[in-house]
């Protein structure tokens, strides 16, 4: 049984919906965690060993859980948040919890790449910690952060495909329901091609934006 074009387009839309919403909320969480992991570490502008010692293992714990296991493990929490554990909207909850800590590590690495001399110069000029973050740290790391978000987006696309294994919808669900279970090789090929194209488009856009940031 071959799938219709309408069903393929619906699956693409569901995937884009999950990726975009998850990326927005995951980026907010990841940015906050990433910044805190940097500025509260030893020797940084807002050193606080207690906050760092709490956040660091929490991020590590969530990052160590495979997405498919996380998706199943938090079903009660997902049901509490959105009222159901099946469908594209339900899949967003574990996607956010999966990608948020991942983004935080990417943001952390991007911010740590900033030359310490820039921070020291800002401190010498009397800049406050918040001025250092928004006028020196972020502008210097912005191009790297763009690539980090690009990497996270590609990871999200792969995670949405796994979400299809448990009724999350999207291209993953299409491949499993119509490709694997109904032995439609063409459906699987079409799904793979679309996923590859999505990844390539995201990577090209990320590279373009990163180059624009570097030139500035």
Automatic annotation (TrEMBL):
<dbReference type="InterPro" id="IPR035906">
    <property type="entry name" value="MetI-like_sf"/>
</dbReference>
<feature type="transmembrane region" description="Helical">
    <location>
        <begin position="141"/>
        <end position="166"/>
    </location>
</feature>
<feature type="transmembrane region" description="Helical">
    <location>
        <begin position="186"/>
        <end position="209"/>
    </location>
</feature>
<dbReference type="GO" id="GO:0005886">
    <property type="term" value="C:plasma membrane"/>
</dbReference>
<keyword id="KW-1133">Transmembrane helix</keyword>
<protein>
    <submittedName>
        <fullName>ABC transporter permease</fullName>
    </submittedName>
</protein>
<dbReference type="InterPro" id="IPR051322">
    <property type="entry name" value="AA_ABC_Transporter_Permease"/>
</dbReference>
<keyword id="KW-1003">Cell membrane</keyword>
<keyword id="KW-0813">Transport</keyword>
<feature type="transmembrane region" description="Helical">
    <location>
        <begin position="51"/>
        <end position="75"/>
    </location>
</feature>
<feature type="transmembrane region" description="Helical">
    <location>
        <begin position="16"/>
        <end position="39"/>
    </location>
</feature>
<dbReference type="GO" id="GO:0048473">
    <property type="term" value="P:D-methionine transmembrane transport"/>
</dbReference>
<keyword id="KW-0812">Transmembrane</keyword>
<feature type="domain" description="ABC transmembrane type-1">
    <location>
        <begin position="12"/>
        <end position="206"/>
    </location>
</feature>
<dbReference type="InterPro" id="IPR000515">
    <property type="entry name" value="MetI-like"/>
</dbReference>
<keyword id="KW-0472">Membrane</keyword>
<dbReference type="Pfam" id="PF00528">
    <property type="entry name" value="BPD_transp_1"/>
</dbReference>
<comment type="similarity">
    <text>Belongs to the binding-protein-dependent transport system permease family. CysTW subfamily.</text>
</comment>
<feature type="transmembrane region" description="Helical">
    <location>
        <begin position="81"/>
        <end position="103"/>
    </location>
</feature>
């Amino acid at each position: 049984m071959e799938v219709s074009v309408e069903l393929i387009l619906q699956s693409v839309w569901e995937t884009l919906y999950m990726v975009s919403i998850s990326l927005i909320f995951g980026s907010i969480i990841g940015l906050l965690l990433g910044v805190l992991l940097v500025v509260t570490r030893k020797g940084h502008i807002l050193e606080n060993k207690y906050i760092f010692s709490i956040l660091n293992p929490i991020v590590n714990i969530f990052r160590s859980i495979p997405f498919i296991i996380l998706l199943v493990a938090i079903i009660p929490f997902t049901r509490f948040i959105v009222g159901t554990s099946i469908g594209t909207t339900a899949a967003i909850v574990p996607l956010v919890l999966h990608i948020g800590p991942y983004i935080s590590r990417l943001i952390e690495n991007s911010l740590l790449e900033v030359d310490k001399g820039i921070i020291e110069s800002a401190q010498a000029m009397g800049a406050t910690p918040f001025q250092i973050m928004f006028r020196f740290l972020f502008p210097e790391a912005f191009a790297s952060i763009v690539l980090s978000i690009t990497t996270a987006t590609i990871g999200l696309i792969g995670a949405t495909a796994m979400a299809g294994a448990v009724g999350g919808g999207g291209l993953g669900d299409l491949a499993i329901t119509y490709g694997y279970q109904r032995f439609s090789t063409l459906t699987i090929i079409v799904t793979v091609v679309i996923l590859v194209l999505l990844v390539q488009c995201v990577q090209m856009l990320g590279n373009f934006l990163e180059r624009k940031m570097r030139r500035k």
